[in-house]
Amino acid sequence: MPICATCLLDSLPEHAVRWGHACESADSGLLYFTDGSSATYDLLVGADGAESRVRALLTDARPAHTGQNVVELGIPDIDRTHPDLAAMVGRGNYWVLGNGRSLSAQRNGDGRVRIYLSFYNTAEDWFATIGIPFGDPAAARVRLIELFTGWDSRFTALIAACDDTVLPRSITSLPVGLTWPSRPGVTLLGDAAHLMPPVGQGANMALLDGALLGLALAAHPDDFPAAVKEYEREMFERTSAAGRQSAHVQEILTSPDASQKMLAFFQPG
User: Fold this and answer.
1) For residues 43 and 228, what is the distance between their CA atoms, to the nearest angstrom?
2) H helices within 195-256, ranges in order?
3) For residue 259, what are the contacts with CB-CB under 8 A and spacing of at least 6?
């Protein structure tokens, strides 16, 4: 567990977190858990991600497939095991774009590099038809390298160096600018509220959501409805702008000349 999460948990009163209570559904004032138990609540914050079970209390909006399917892989301890690839990736993020596909590499704090292989303009059932044997990681890597035939061997070497983590990710998003009438006792944050394509905005917005909701509750400790309204008013405006930018970057990535457009996107002015 990351040390930041440990510090946060240690700061809470004993028994504030109840492990093993996955939320199955919610209605007005009551939570239902998968173990058959239930609990009442005064304020329900849906921070339960893309497939939020809390979202339905506030809006009928559902995530829709973006046309992007991703395979996540990883290289552990890359500096020791593959120093040549480590030097190529560098200390931050590494991107290669082209022909409706992309390869990105992301440094993690534990020495692992996560590899994301993205396939754009693909159907929601693409994984069922493309023939990647996810149950056989070695064969899956071979198939993935085939899907990048024609790419420089330096890039496919990143795929070959990965361990047995081979995970399919079907990318969905919520409508940009989604709002809902404020409801006392219930709100959302993070992907539950404003699921975006994974281009760098979603996690940042979620962290701000949590901080600003906390500040609103601290400012109105005896008035949850006022705190929720204050938080949602700011959150809607901020995440709508972030969602528009994320949609723009996603449009660049799916275009035939993605590399040129992405270079232009990062040019000053």
Assistant:
1) 9
2) 202-219, 224-254
3) 97, 98
Q: What is the pLDDT along the chain (269 residues), one digit of tens a residue?
A: 344 667 778 888 888 888 888 888 888 889 999 999 999 999 999 999 999 999 999 999 999 999 999 999 999 999 999 999 999 999 988 999 988 999 999 999 899 999 999 999 999 999 999 999 999 999 999 999 999 999 999 999 999 999 999 999 999 999 999 999 999 899 999 999 999 999 888 999 999 999 999 999 999 999 999 999 999 999 999 999 999 999 999 998 888 888 888 888 888 76
d(CA 228, CA 138): 49
141 forms bridges with which residues in the sheet?
Answer: none
Cβ contact 107:113 at 8 Å: yes
CA neighbor of 156 nearest in space, from 166, 164, 148: 148
Quote the DSSP letter at residue 58.
T
Burial 83-98 (b: 16+ CB within 10 A, else e): eebbeebeeeebebbe
Query: 101: part of which helix (H) or strand (E)?
Result: strand 101-107
Task: Return the number of other C-beta atoms located less than 10 Å from residue 177's C-beta.
Answer: 14
Query: Is 166 strand, coil or helix?
Result: coil
Within 10 A of 166 (CB to CB), how many other CB atoms are there?
25
The residue type at 122: T
State how far the alpha carbon of 49 is from the alpha carbons of 69, 129, 195, 217, 259, in Å: 18, 27, 8, 21, 31
